[in-house]
Amino acid sequence: MARDTTDFRPIEGVDELVEHLAEGNKPRDKWRIGTEHEKFPFYVDGNAPVPYGGERGIRAILEGMQEKLGWDPIMDAGRIIGLVEPTGQGAISLEPGGQFELSGAPLETIHQTCREGNAHLAQVREIAEPMGIRFLGLGGSPKWSLAETPKMPKSRYEIMTRYMPKVGSKGLDMMYRTCTIQVNLDFENEADMRRKMQVSLKLQPLSTALFANSPFTEGRPNGFQSWRGDIWRDTDNQRSGLLEFCFSPEFGFADYVEWALDVPMYFVIRDGHYHDMTHVTFRQFMGGVARNEIPDGLPTMGDWANHLSTLFPDVRLKRFLEMRGADGGPWRRICALPALWVGLLYDEAALDAAEALTSNWTYEEVLAMRNAVPEQGISAPFRNTTLREIARDVLVISRMGLKNRAKKNRDGYDETTFLNTLDEVVARGTTSAEELLSAYHTRWGGSIEPVFMEYAY
Question: Is Disulfide bond included in the keywords of this UniProt record (predicted)?
Fold first, then answer.
C-alpha cells in the first residue's frame, strides 16, 4: 500500500464497516485489473543491497523518478517514501527492506498491464543504472542476512518491526526479505465476492507452486522452492493464512468484518504521527480503550481502511480482492499472474468451471496443500494426484476465460498468450525454483552470484 489513508469520518457502528466493503461492488463493465510487483534493488558492483540514503540510494531513485514522471511525493516525517500519480492511477512505494514496488493503475486488459510493467521497468532502469543499481526478480532475498538488509524510514514499518517477533518466528523475514507479484480484482456484489474469494483461496496454494521462485537464503539453498511460502506459515497467524470461515456457504462481508475486528491493530495516524496500537484489537478500539491514550482517540473510517491494509490472509478483502500467493519473478511472471486470475475469475463460464473443480475441496485439504507447496512445489500431492495435474486443468479453465474475454492487442493476439510461461512450468514439470537450483549445482558452480545477472531487470 503506497499511502496510508486519512478519512476523519467517525465510525458510528459495525454496519458502517460492512458497508465500507460493500461499496466495492461494481458492475461488470467497471471491473479492472490492478497489478502490483516488487523487486530487490542491488548494486551491480558486488551484488550488495541498496540503502535508503546517499547519492546512490533508494531516496535518490525516488527523487529521480519524481522528476521524470511528475508524480506527487509521498512523505513520512519529512522523508520521501513513495510516489503517487496525481489522479490516483498508480503509485510507487517501498517495502521495509527497500523492495521497490509498483502498484499499477486499474486497467482493462492484461495487454495494458504488460505495457505498464514494461514502461515502469524501463523508467526505473533509466534512473538507477547510472547509479550502478539494478533490480532482482525473485521471491526471496538470495544473499543478504537480516542484519545486512537496509531498513526504510517508514513509520508503520518501525511499529511492525517491533511487533513481529512477538507473534511469529518469520515476520521480519517476510517484511525485509521477500517480494511478490499480486493482482487486485473487482466483484459485482456480495455473492460474486463470495464465489471469487472461495475459488481463489482454494487455488492460492497452486499459485504459490506455479510461481515458486525463492530457493536461496544467505547464499545457499534453503530447502524450499518457495521460501516465501514457508515464511507465511509463521509470520502472524492472527492476521494471515487460510481463513476457514471463508469456506462457509453463507460467507459474506459481515463475516470478514467480524474477523478483522478481533485482529490486533498496528497503528493509527493523528496529525501525521503514527501511534503504536498493537496492544488492542479494532473492536477494543471501537469500545473506547484508546480514548485517553492518543489525541482524538475515537476510531475513524480512515483507521478502518488502514487496519484492513494490515491484514495478510492468502486472499485479502478490501473493496476488491487481492491475490497474495505468488513469489516475485521476472518480467513474464508480472504478466502471467494477473492473466491466470483474470482468466479464472472475470469470465462467468470460467468461474463456473473453477467453482465446480474446487467445490468439494475442504479447508483441511487446502491447508495440507498449502503446507506441502513450499518444499514440493507443483509436485505436492492432492488427493490421488499432484498439483501439476491440477494445474493442467486450471490453466485450461483460465485460458478459456481469457479467450472468452476476447481482449486483443493491435496484432490480433488475445490475452491467452500470457499464460505460456505457466504452461511451460507444467510441461517441464519443474518450477523456476527448481531450475535455479539446477543451475546452482551445475553451471553456477555452487554460487548464487550469477542469479543477480540472470534474474535482473
Answer: yes
